[in-house]
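Reopening this one. Same input as before:
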Amino acid sequence: MLVHSRKGKWAVWVLFAVLFLPLFALPLLVILTASFSEHWSGAFPSGLTGEHYASATRGESLRALTTSLVTALGASLLALTVGSWAALAAASLKKGGRKGGKRVLDALFVLPVAVPSVVVGLAVLVAFSKPPMILNGTRWIVILAHALLVTAFAYQSVTAAIARLDPAYEQAAASLGARPSYVLWKVKLPLLLPSLNAAAGLCFALSMGELSATMMLYPPDWTPLPVRIFAATDRGSTFTGAALAVVLMAATLLVLLAVSRVRTRASYR
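Same output, byte for byte:
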């Protein structure tokens, strides 16, 4: 901490508690409590039950969770591949003195997050509902839309990591006769591995919670869990929706914990 005095530290902790508890912890606690409740007519819930979780982990809800995991995994891999390639290309443009090309790439990859996600969903729907590539009504249009929405974060993360790389490693490898492809695969990418893992985790988490674009695109046989949560709460099944939301958060956190372990090992290497 930047504050070294005892009073200053206490003041920082009090400020943190005042801001964190009402804004972040309390809403999550309310959702967790509602997921175990049968009724909530007063200030506190009444009647504890686990039936909401029983229905949230089987049947259509379990299929929706699997759909969300597969969608997020596919979108993350696609976004990481495209975003990393574009970041490496932008770094080459900057190194070659073509800063205008880098600015164009920056603007291109930031554009999907600069507009509402529902606009991106509509654009994807219009673009892929006619030949030569018709994806409307398939799972692939959902994965593609999620990838478009999260690629910007992968691109920015890898771009920042490339800027921090020490060029001495590449120069040493090149001076020893290594080809550019060898330098990329054996020198640059291993150094970027922690940032790549972090970008993959961020893309996965964002895809797991995406709703607006998904609502415009998902086919009946490919319903992600956020859509099912929205449908449950829209029908008035608030407690079931709360249980589904907790399941969604738990699944996302478990994947992020696994990614963080990979990132820790990569950083150690």
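So the earlier flakiness isn't reproducible anymore. For the record, The two ends are 28 Å apart (CA to CA).
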